[in-house]
UniProtKB/TrEMBL annotation, chain A:
Residues 84-95 have a biased composition (Basic and acidic residues). Pfam families: Fuz_longin_1, Fuz_longin_2, Fuz_longin_3. Plays an important role in membrane trafficking through the secretory apparatus. Residues 1-17, 96-107 have a biased composition (Polar residues). The lineage of its organism: Eukaryota, Metazoa, Ecdysozoa, Arthropoda, Hexapoda. It comes from the Eukaryota. GO terms for cellular component: Mon1-Ccz1 complex. This is Vacuolar fusion protein MON1 homolog.
From TrEMBL, chain B:
SMART domains: RAB, RAN, RAS, RHO. The keyword Iron-sulfur does not apply. Belongs to the small GTPase superfamily. Rab family. This is Uncharacterized protein. It comes from Arctia plantaginis. Keywords: Nucleotide-binding. One of its GO terms (molecular function) is GTPase activity. It holds the Pfam family Ras. It comes from the Eukaryota. InterPro entries: P-loop_NTPase, Small_GTP-bd, Small_GTPase.
């Protein structure tokens, strides 16, 4: 059974990793913001009503900071202000009357009778799902439902809104969760929105809050927090779906993505394993091309939900959750594949008050790497488009596209394609490793593109709970198993440092140090000392391959 | 040979098929899995007319309401607009009228407008009659075409071809300052010598012969048309 100890276990490996040596994957400067998302969400859960309101209103604008630093002339500043003002609701309302294409949405909801609604909650579209997510406005208007048609869920949303507001107004408290025998309902009130997850999975309350926060950030990423708040200040009863149309699929994909990828669980980013030299070439191609473009804040290259490189403006780093939203955006937008796009993107952790403008394009038809050039300048499309073509040409000449394709297609010759085979410890079935200081992640079974596709197709059909005997575990199942260990390790009140659990199915070891988190699944009959030796060898392998599997530099323009 | 560079913006409500239309024209294919455009997509294409070439910069905009406030960024300095609606949706046709008003009040220069009724393959669900649409198009001095990004390559080619010829006429009437026009003796001054040309949209089926000597490379003098 589960046993946790705080000291005795790690001693052997401490001897082999002298304190002055960095843990595998660590480097002195990080491109990512290594904040512990769990602490953040735990604090989210313990915040009081007042704190919450203050937090939402005290956001400074990084974008404005950059713009003023670049020293734009007064004239340009006023231009930005005036364009900002067209973003606001007045401009919006004019356009609403002009484009009435959404009117059919409203018509539908009026057609429903009360009877249908009652039956609807029992319909196969909604019953027996593992996890529901509902988003509604604080006035109780439905905005999003993971399954079924949110139009028909107005009654349910009314009930949720009533529950939340009763606790808030009568008890001056926050409703956080309701637990029943087989089901958890977790509530998150963020600004003008109420987000609810109803789950029968083994995820902890904190993990569900994390997912709801991601869903909220996804909405912010589409609209900006400023706009979101303003809309509801002006019209409490506003139907947000009008502005979110076309973005529901981003939330759909995000929810699936979060269930599947441990990157969310650990608040870390997956990197595409690449030879050190290739990554260096890619980075320097971007640096040398973009060094003259003054307003460029981030240049990000990614492929298959993995980061290839990130070049940034000095002083600014990105939060892993912002990168996850970018992954999700690229992953769920087929339209980026056909042409260069010029897209407004709000990165909630970087600056939730405004949009960055992004030049988004795939490097070439024969390489599925996507390049995002994010700037604060809304007219910069053509210089960035030019830069992209130069970068693509440089990468082709230096054979980097081949290296990227090899990694993406999981070429058999690469040690990172099948790490377990390469490491040669047969008892290890699966592992995942997070380097805390750089917020990067490596697992023994890097998700490939097709797998994610499969999962999505399967998921479209169901999301139903099914009791099926599985012969061979997939990486998703391993990640599922790690959830409870992760929750124990990040538990606010009594965090465990090390967990060793053995049962008839498998043996799982979860270990957190100041530098890393490690989760390993072994065969069931694994002895403790045997496990220690295996973990030591595993860490040495990661250290040896760290240049390939992690991004060890933090380049700037 | 006369070369004209022009910017064309594709406007219309969400889901009317703007991207499908453009992708059908430029990529000669139709995909069922096009996701909503976010912001705007940028394409370029060349159209060869009998005695001139039109280089088009196509801005395919997003139809969603939340991008509405960004539209001025895309139609600013545009020389032509494709106003696309879905023939099965009256509201998308009404939206076109809103776009026309907005363009008329915000774009000072003359523009080539084309009204395009898309999804003509869904004839049985038609909600906007041909006469209604033609009448409206005539009232704003625009061409009216019906297309189907699903089936009808020719119809879409025709839309772009009409726009290109109208742009050519407009440039010779000397009223547009933002429309770049110049003469080029060898057709395309951007093609390096010795490289084969890859034309996206050549309707007249001309083979481009690159000039081999340095003297023949034209740099294209900008014609100063306006004050």
């Amino acid at each position: 059974m589960a046993s946790s100890s705080k000291d005795s276990f790690p001693t052997t490996s401490n001897q082999e990793n002298p304190p002055d040596e960095l843990e595998p994957g660590a480097c002195y400067e990080s491109i990512l913001n290594p904040t512990d998302s769990f602490e953040e969400f735990a604090s989210e859960m313990s915040s009081s009503l007042q704190e919450r309101n203050i937090l939402l209103n005290t956001k400074s604008s990084t974008i404005h900071e950059i713009q003023s630093e670049i020293g734009e002339s007064l004239k340009e500043n006023t231009q930005i202000k005036s364009t900002k003002s067209t973003d606001d609701l007045q401009g919006k309302e004019e356009s609403m009357t002009a484009s009435t294409s959404n009117s059919n949405l409203i018509d539908q909801s009026e057609d429903d009778t009360d009877n249908e609604k009652d039956d609807y909650l029992q319909s196969p579209e909604l019953v027996n799902k593992e996890k529901h997510v509902f988003i509604l406005s604080s006035a109780g208007k439905p905005i999003y439902s993971r399954y079924g048609n949110e139009d028909k869920l107005a009654g349910l949303c009314g009930v949720i809104q009533a529950l939340v507001s009763v606790v808030e107004e009568q008890n001056q408290d926050i409703l956080r969760s309701i637990t029943t025998k087989d089901c958890k309902a977790v509530f998150l009130v963020k600004g003008p929105l109420i987000l609810v997850a109803v789950s029968k999975s083994n995820e902890s309350e904190t993990q569900l809050v994390l997912q709801l926060t991601y869903a909220f950030n996804q909405i912010v990423s589409v609209l900006t927090l400023t706009q979101l708040n303003r809309i509801f200040e002006q019209r409490r009863n506003y139907d947000l779906r009008r502005l979110l149309s076309g973005a529901e699929r981003l939330i759909d994909h995000l929810l699936i993505f979060m269930e599947k990828d441990p990157a969310f669980l650990l608040g870390a980013v997956r990197c595409l394993p690449l030879p050190e030299k290739a990554r260096e070439n890619i980075t320097s191609a971007i640096q040398s091309t973009c060094s003259k473009i003054r307003d460029l804040v981030f240049a990000i290259m990614l492929a298959g939900n993995q980061l290839i490189t990130l070049v940034r403006m000095k002083k600014y780093t990105l939060h892993p959750s912002d990168i996850h939203l970018l992954f999700n955006l690229v992953r769920s937008s087929e339209s980026f594949k056909t042409a260069e796009s010029w897209t407004p993107i709000c990165l909630p952790k970087f600056d939730s008050t405004g949009f960055l403008h992004g030049h988004v394009s795939y490097i070439s038809e024969d390489c599925q790497a996507c390049l995002l050039l994010l700037t604060v300048q809304r007219d910069a499309f053509f210089p960035l488009s030019q830069a992209k073509h130069t970068i693509a040409e440089k990468l082709r000449r230096s054979n980097c596209l081949v290296a990227i394709n090899d990694a993406l297609n999981r070429n058999e010759e690469l040690p990172t394609t099948n790490p377990l085979k390469h490491i040669g410890i047969p008892e290890i079935r699966h592992f995942m490793y997070k380097c805390k200081s750089t917020a990067q992640l490596f697992t023994s079974d890097p998700i490939s593109l097709d797998k994610l596709q499969d999962y999505r197709i399967r998921h479209k059909e169901g999301g139903d709970i099914c009791e099926k005997k599985v012969e061979k575990l997939s990486d998703i199942d391993y990640v599922r198993n790690y959830r409870q260990f992760c929750a124990q390790i990040h538990c606010m009140s009594t965090p465990a440092k090390l967990i060793f659990r053995s049962n008839s199915h498998d043996t799982i070891l979860a270990w957190i140090t100041h530098g890393f988190e490690l989760y390993v699944t072994f065969d069931p009959l694994m002895e403790k000392d045997q496990a220690i030796r295996a973990v030591d060898r595993l860490l040495k392998w990661i250290k040896r391959e760290e240049q390939r599997i992690f991004i060890m530099h933090a380049p700037t323009f | 040979m006369k070369v004209i560079e022009a910017k064309i913006v594709v406007l219309g409500s969400q889901g009317v098929g703007k991207t499908s239309l453009v992708v059908r024209y430029i990529g000669k294919m139709f995909s069922k899995h096009i996701s909503p455009t976010i912001g705007a997509s940028f394409f370029t294409c060349n159209i060869n007319l009998d005695n001139a070439r039109v280089k088009l910069q196509v801005w395919d905009t997003a139809g969603q309401e939340r991008f509405r406030s960004m539209a001025p960024m895309y139609y600013r300095n545009a020389n032509a607009a494709l106003l696309v609606f879905d023939i099965t949706s009256v509201s998308s046709f009404t939206a076109i009228k809103g776009w026309v008003k907005e363009l008329q009040s915000n774009v000072p220069e003359a523009m080539v407008l084309s009204v395009v009724g898309n999804k003509s393959d869904l004839e049985q669900y038609r909600a906007v009659t041909v006469s209604e649409a033609t009448q409206f198009a005539a009232s704003i001095g625009a061409h009216y075409c019906e297309t189907s990004a699903l089936h009808d390559q020719q119809g879409i080619d025709q839309v772009f071809l009409n726009t290109a010829s109208a742009l050519l006429r407009l440039s010779s009437s000397n009223t547009m300052s933002s429309l770049r026009a110049y003469d080029s003796s060898d057709g395309d001054d951007k093609i390096p010598t010795g490289c084969p040309t890859e034309e996206d949209a050549t309707h007249t089926g001309k083979v481009e012969l690159p000039s081999w000597s340095i003297d023949n490379i034209a740099h294209g003098d900008v014609q100063k048309n306006c004050c």
